[in-house]
Write a structure and sequence with these properties.
71% of the residues lie in helices and 3% in strands. It is mainly α. It has 2 domains: 126 residues, no CATH class; 78 residues, no CATH class. It has a two-stranded antiparallel ribbon. Strand 1 and strand 2 form a beta hairpin. Helix 4 packs antiparallel against helix 5. The radius of gyration is 22 Å and the shape is globular. The chain starts with 13 loop residues before the first helix and ends with a helix.
Length: 259
Amino acid sequence: MHERLSFHIKRDSFLHRLNPLTKLALTLALILLAFTFPWYWMPHLLALAAIIPLSLLGKVFREFMLTALRLIIPAAGFLFLMQAFFQPVGADVIFQFYFLDMTSESVLFAFRNAMRIVVMVSAFTLFLLTTHPSELMSDLTRRGLPGQFSYVIISTLQILPQMQTKAQTIISAQRSRGLDTESSFLKRAGSLIPLIGPLVFGSLVEVEERAIAIEARGFTSKHAKTSLHEIPDPAFDKSLRWVLFALIIASIGLNIWLS
């Protein structure tokens, strides 16, 4: 069975063809604009006018929406409720549940922060869906980033896909041995114990095997390294990175000036 090592979805799109560093700069720009721009509706505008169009440009709208429904929206909704009820601001109570009060000010505060989380997680989701970790590592290494840092980045991006693949393999193996993983909640909770052990120990073995493999390939060698696959970096990408950098500086400067 083919093991999926990343969230990357291979498509021929504008977003896929961008340089990995450009996509990383775009991700950071969206996040920083959402958190630093003083206009209240900025995170909402970014979600509607930037995130969704980018998912369409990258031809990953379906995968992005599935992630949004499963992860982004529930997490942002939970954050909204916690801050709306427990943020002690305002006196205009619009909803009351026992001893918990929700004011109009707390709702606005919670809604803005929830949308910031939506933009942050959505931007990283688009980055992971349209950027292969090996391309990012090759490009960063070519630009002078030490190999150790590149390895940390690519390993971090591959942790969840590898854990998911290994967990599914273990679940299938345990089912073939008669383990009940689809009945009541209590039985499924009890079946987690025979799944956690192989998952944790298998991950530890993979770490050791990967350490041996990178040493065998001269990972710590001081000699200059070459890449079989050159990552293109056209003038458009360079110009776009400067534009994104200027937007970030302008947003931070405007925030400081108005504060």
